[in-house]
Amino acid sequence: YKEAVELWELLQDSNDKDTHRELAIFYEHRDKNFLKALNYAEKGLEKDLSDYKRKDLLKRIERLKIKIKKLEEET
Asked: Which positions of the chain have pLDDT values less than 70?
């Protein structure tokens, strides 16, 4: 995953429409860095996406916000 993340981070300014989604998935599920995952998911919305990909990111963003809120309530 380390090499994949490095490549995705290099590609994030390109026209690739899946880079931010993949980074969001990695940081949500593998690294458990929900704030970073949220940031990448929100950046992904700036791309020209299909309706399906846009809905996927919006769903991910809502889920991440819930996770972040739960963590904040625990502290």
From this structure: none
